[in-house]
Amino acid sequence: AEQNRELRERLLQLKKERNAIILAHYYQRDEIQEVADFRGDSFLLAQKAAETDADTIVFCGVHFMGESAKILAPNKTVIIPDERAGCPMADMVNVEGLRKLKAQHPNAKVVTYINSSAEIKAETDICCTSANAVKVVNSVEGDEIIWVPDKNLGHYVQQKTDKKMIIWEGYCNTHDMLTVKDVEEMKANYPNAEFVVHPECRPEVVALGDFVGSTTAIIKYCKESPNKEFIVGTEDGTGYQLRLDSPDKTFHFATKYLVCPNMKVNNLKKLVRCLENMSPQIYVPPQVADKARLSLERMLLVK
Length: 303
Ligand code: 13P
Ligand code: SF4
Fold this sequence. Notes:
GO terms for molecular function: 4 iron, 4 sulfur cluster binding; metal ion binding; quinolinate synthetase A activity. InterPro entries: NadA, NadA_sf, Quinolinate_synth_type2. One of its GO terms (cellular component) is cytoplasm. Keywords: 4Fe-4S, Coiled coil, Cytoplasm, Iron, Iron-sulfur, Metal-binding, Pyridine nucleotide biosynthesis, Transferase. The protein is an alpha/beta fold. The chain is globular and about 55 Å long. The chain folds into three domains: about 1-85 and about 265-285, Rossmann fold (3-Layer(aba) Sandwich); about 90-170 and about 290-300, NadA-like (Rossmann fold); about 175-255, Rossmann fold, CATH 3.40.50.10800. It contains 15 helices and twelve strands. The strands form three sheets. Strands 2-1-3-4 form a four-stranded parallel sheet, with helices on both faces. The chain has a four-stranded parallel sheet with strand order 6-5-7-8, with helices on both faces. Helix 1 (about 1-20) packs parallel to helix 14 and helix 4 (about 65-70) crosses helix 15. The protein binds 1,3-dihydroxyacetonephosphate and iron/sulfur cluster. Iron/sulfur cluster binds near residues 62, 88 and 262.
């Protein structure tokens, strides 16, 4: 506790010196979410990065999030606590594979989940997050969509749109691990609880949801629901904001395995160190960034 107090004091000092803003995803450790200027889901944090006047953006999340911030704010310095914090789902699609699919479906528009590399975004018509996926797909001209990389979110969106989606076979290791059996056991143990679930979970698990949405949407739903008890089907870090917003409610995570090891690579010590050293920094080659930026900016314009 004493060490964390010292780290937090040092962080405040460094933030002023560097004119920095700290963005943290809801899946980050509590000790990071506590000191963030903004906590949010992927969509909200991308918006904050695009809007900020700060000189330095410290992005506490996984690599593609820092990259998206750098693409949207190319004149800012973007630093991250640890460059080993990646997203395995983002690595499940490569440029060669996507180009092949585009050649097979020349009339299809490419809609890419923001959980992807800058190179993939550069091959993309429009990006989306779990918060706006249906809206983005419906906003696209034409009726054929190439969707990368999350098959689970893709299946969820396919049920809500008339467009024909060609869906890549990627998935999130963490969310995809949750099974129907896990959820049924929890429902039996907590019969009054509502089940809230992230669309990165398997379709048959999502089908059990009383509410389906991005992390921000889940937090908002739980706060506003008259219900007092919830089974949560998303990453464990979300508990920080859930408990902050709804201190009188009870949250049961659907399993103890809903932990993204990549998100947990970051900690307070590394956060302070990266601001101290102004490293590791995110760099995106300008030719890639310029193309990728269009796909992100189009997403931010979808109402
Ligand atoms: P959201 O931030 O859109 O809820 O997505 C969750 C996620 O898995 C981020 O890596
Ligand atoms: Fe990637 Fe899943 Fe971790 Fe999000 S929770 S960063 S999608 S592995």
